[in-house]
Specification:
heterodimer; A: about 325 residues; mainly alpha; ABC transporter involved in vitamin B12 uptake, BtuC; 15 helices; globular; B: about 400 residues; alpha/beta; Rossmann fold; 2 domains; 9-stranded mixed sheet; 6-stranded mixed sheet; about 25% strand; disordered N terminus
Chain lengths: ~325, ~400
């Protein structure tokens, strides 16, 4: 029935080739490596930036791909963070790599349990409920001050050397940077594979037209719950990394500030497009870091102006703006 | 460019500017967010010290960095960069205790003198041997007030209301311990919401009123909470019911006091500083402050923490001839005495924490403005948490 040459159609070709590695895709990783050598005294900031990218990437999976509107993603960041922090503080377990797995498991479990109820709702209700879940966890950590340290946090967590060889130096965080970069790379490959898989395609379908997905018989609710759980687990990895590199955790890891920041970063970069997390985190974090250095009291003005401009003129974030510009350029060049 | 480095260098003597040895001070404060007002007080306190007591012969460069929030992570990065990029000789600042706790490993690795100008959680000075504190411990005011409530105010019973975060819990623990040791009885302990937002205090205060205590001890963080406390106390008619409102000086913070109106008259507080202290250093300090920042502006206990912190740094600079080697500087600061606007202070040679007077004061109306009248002075008060070794203090 298929017309001859249909697979040769540009749209079909784009569809088939979309998961393939593009020539520019190694660029972020080359830049990240370059940063290590070019700015050896900025690696503390660099480490935080990479963690933020991972956290934003986890949110992109839920918000950008599956369209789960959440304002409480720090709940999972904090869950992963506290899982690692509590085990290390109470002398149960502190090996870094397995710590990440534990952080992911705990955050994923909370994602699964909360997702089972939350994901029956949509829109503003969902937004409020995700916020409430985070607030409940935060208050639980506050009330369990005896174990969690509350607002003052768990100090001086003993994190042993990576693979028993590479020590985390508090003053020159080179090992921390490379460690986080490695974990980010692995997680990114996983997320990339996931969003181009049939599972990932069905998530996009749910985001775009949930009724049709129901109609074609897709198990919409379970897809959403699975996605939410995976997203939570990756956020948990980000939280675990944050604790291991800071050797410290307190209530702010579960706070609204963090949840709002990651949302802004993702929207700034462009959601639902994998690299939005990278661009958004780099722009937001670098601007706030270097502006704050030059103007410690007034840096938020510059950042605020940028966000306003993005919201007004680049609805799909920096990457959306880039696409539009490139689109114009190409269409001008192409023959009419 | 307005400058990465805000130079206080004009203070160095002009003649030998070229030869003057440079000392770099890395300041970490929350210049933005809810702590911005506190950071400004500390900043101005440091500025006033350098203006009134120039450190002759040295060029002092202050590198200011915003720590943004109490998450610990940002402060850690900032301090890391101050040490490795800006190569500072001395670290200073710390408004939020979590940041001092999180930064302790970095401070230990950096091996530089670190002067805490606000953060008041009692045990943080024990987390690094490089920490010296010129502000206070929560136990200074809380413990002394517990004794004073029983002895000076002749109270037999008390209810404690506190904001539900570590400083509030410290304040509760210290007050209760001293009050009960002096024969008083705490009838109720009421957690009153978080530090992040000002709650409606009415239900908490009504609960306190129903217990009919002699005094109602309230701790809320300095800032907008205190105005609401005073308003609610007035609205519920607790004074007429014979319940005295007492607390640490945070509830009568100087730069909020005049906005509280006549409802604040009769408040009794315990603190190490208020702007109405009559000693000569304070009069000079307040006069210079008002001249520089306007007649309506008032220094408060944050500002004096910055002022004394800079005094400690200046002493360390002179004692080490500008090298500010951490070990030498710490030796010079152990047992260091200084005539501060808050009265005589001393750095405890054992704990590196401050020893200072506590003032029991009552708010009165004087010449049409609210005035803090000192009723009693408790001299050379040490941090009771460390003196009594109450965990986590050692």
């Amino acid at each position: 029935m298929s017309a001859p040459g249909l697979s040769e159609h540009p749209a079909a070709r784009a569809m088939v080739a979309r998961h393939r590695l593009r020539a520019w895709e190694p660029l972020p990783w080359i830049l990240a490596f370059g940063f290590y050598f070019a700015f050896p005294n900025h690696l503390g900031f660099g480490t935080d930036l990479l963690i933020m990218i991972l956290f934003a990437l986890s949110l992109d999976l839920a918000l950008g791909y599956a369209g789960i509107v959440t304002l409480g993603h720090a709940a999972f960041f904090g869950a992963g963070a506290y899982a690692v922090g509590l085990l290390a503080h109470h002398g149960v377990w502190n090996e870094p790599i397995t710590g990440l797995v534990i952080g992911a498991a705990v955050a994923g479990l909370i994602g699964l349990i909360s997702g089972l109820t939350l994901l029956r709702t949509t829109g503003l209700t969902l937004l409020m409920l995700t916020l409430c879940t985070m607030a409940l966890l935060e208050e639980a950590a506050n009330m369990g001050e005896k174990y969690t340290g509350g607002f003052d946090g768990l100090p001086n967590l003993p994190i042993p050397p990576l693979f028993g060889l590479f020590e985390f130096n508090p003053l020159y965080p080179r090992v921390q940077y490379l460690y986080v970069l490695g974990v980010l790379f692995v997680c990114f490959l996983f997320v990339r594979m996931l969003v181009y898989s049939p599972f990932g395609q069905s998530l996009t379908g749910i985001r775009e037209n949930v009724l049709r997905m129901h109609a074609v018989g897709a198990p919409v609710n379970w897809r959403l719950i699975t996605c939410y759980t995976i997203s939570a687990a990756i956020a948990g990895v980000a939280g675990a990394l944050w604790v291991q590199t800071n050797t410290y955790v307190n209530l702010t890891s579960l706070g609204l500030d963090r949840a709002a920041t990651v949302l802004i970063i993702l929207v700034l970069g462009g959601y639902g497009r994998l690299y939005g997390a990278f661009v958004g985190a780099v722009v937001y974090m670098a601007l706030s870091h270097f502006l704050a250095k030059v103007y410690p009291t007034a840096w938020q003005l510059g950042l605020g102006l940028l966000l306003m401009l993005i919201a007004l003129f680049a609805r799909n974030g920096v990457l959306g703006l880039w696409d539009r510009l490139m689109g114009r350029l190409l269409s001008r060049r192409a023959p009419p | 460019m307005i400058g990465k480095f805000i130079l206080a260098s004009a203070l160095a003597t002009v003649a030998c500017l070229a030869q003057a040895q440079e000392v770099r001070i890395g300041v970490n404060l929350p210049y933005t967010g809810i702590g911005a007002e506190l950071a400004q007080q500390i900043d101005r306190g440091m500025e006033q010290y350098l203006k009134l007591n120039p450190v002759k012969g040295y060029k002092i460069t202050i590198v200011k960095r915003d720590v943004k929030d109490p998450s610990g992570g940002n402060a850690r990065n900032v301090i890391q960069e101050l040490l490795t990029q800006d190569k500072v000789d001395v670290l200073a600042g710390w408004v939020y205790s979590p940041n001092a706790i999180a930064a302790a490993p970095v401070v230990n690795a950096g091996k530089k003198l670190a002067v805490i100008m606000n953060a008041g959680t009692a045990h943080i000075t024990q987390m690094s041997n490089y920490y010296v504190r010129t502000s206070f411990s929560m136990w200074h005011a809380g413990y002394t007030m517990g004794e004073a409530a029983a002895k000076n105010l002749k109270a037999k019973t008390a209810v404690v209301g506190f904001t539900d975060f570590p400083p509030g819990k410290d304040m509760l623990a210290s007050f209760r311990r001293a009050f009960e040791a002096s024969g008083g009885k705490v009838l109720d302990e009421i957690p009153m919401g978080s530090a992040g937002a000002v709650p409606d205090f009415t239900p908490f205060f009504q609960r306190a009123k129903d217990k009919k205590p002699d005094v109602f001890f309230v701790f809320v963080p300095a800032g907008d909470h205190s105005s609401a406390v005073v308003r609610t106390y007035g609205a519920l008619g607790m004074r007429a019911a014979g319940i005295k409102l007492i607390g640490p000086g945070d509830i009568t913070q100087d730069n909020k006091l005049q906005g509280m109106g006549s409802a604040a008259v009769g408040l009794v507080t315990m603190h190490h500083y208020h702007a109405d202290l009559t000693n000569a250093e304070n009069q000079r300090f307040v006069a210079s402050w008002k001249k520089d920042y306007g007649a309506d502006s008032t220094p408060d206990f944050m500002a004096v923490g910055g002022y004394d912190g800079m005094a400690a740094i200046a002493h360390a600079i002179r004692a080490t001839k500008g090298k500010v080697d951490a070990e030498e500087a710490l030796t010079a600061l152990r047992g260091w005495k200084f005539a501060s606007p808050r009265g005589p202070i001393l750095i405890d040679p054992e704990t590196r924490d401050i020893v200072m007077n506590q003032y029991l004061s009552e708010v009165i109306m004087k010449n049409g403005r609210l005035f803090q009248n000192t009723i009693a002075t408790f001299e050379n008060v040490k941090d009771a948490c460390k003196a009594l070794k109450i965990p986590p203090c050692k």
